[in-house]
Specification:
Elements (H helix, E strand, L loop, with lengths): L6 H9 L12 H38 L2 H10 L6 H22 L3 H21 L14 H13 L7
Helix pairs in contact: 2-4, 2-6, 3-4, 5-6
Length: 163
């Protein structure tokens, strides 16, 4: 064991130097940077996972859970009718699924920009065609604001804190 009277000597031999005390283990000038690196490591992954989950869940719900007739009614309100509407519905579902997978497998600033542009585009269309959705009790459009904030944080994050 490394404890006991000769434990410190064994640790020193293993390290090739005397072990440092806890008060000098991290240099005072490095502590804040190391704290930011530690936070960034889990924060970025958590935001990416949450964002991917939203994209994938909306894809699955749109394509397989929510009644198609309800989706087609919503699409008709934004001017999509006839055979174009199901193509838009399932095309958007496929796009959402792809964005979710890309968020996990290919996290890049360009991807965050594309996602933000899509969300802004959706929000503009909904605002023009269905402005009452801003006052909906479940906040379907209002929820775009925190997602845009997540995208802004991801976009602003350096590609790596391990420099």
């Amino acid at each position: 064991s490394a404890t006991g009277p000769d434990g410190a000597a064994r640790v020193a031999r293993l390290l090739g130097r005397s072990p440092r005390g806890i008060e000098s283990f991290i240099a005072q000038g490095e502590a804040e940077l190391l704290r930011h690196r530690a936070l960034a490591d889990w924060r970025t992954r958590a935001l990416q996972f949450a964002l991917a989950l939203v994209w994938i869940a909306t894809a699955v719900i749109s394509a397989f859970v929510y009644p198609v007739s309800g989706s087609l009614e919503i699409l008709a309100r934004v001017g999509l009718h006839g055979s174009v509407a199901p193509v838009a519905l399932y095309g958007a579902s496929l796009l959402h699924f792809a964005l979710g997978i890309a968020t996990l497998a290919w996290p890049r600033r360009a991807l965050w920009a594309v996602q933000a542009a899509l969300i802004l585009g959706y929000s503009i269309v909904i605002t023009a065609a269905m402005p009452e959705y801003w006052a909906h009790p479940f906040g379907p459009v209002l929820k775009n604001l925190p997602i845009l904030a997540i995208l802004a944080v991801l976009y602003a994050e350096p590609t790596s804190w391990n420099t």
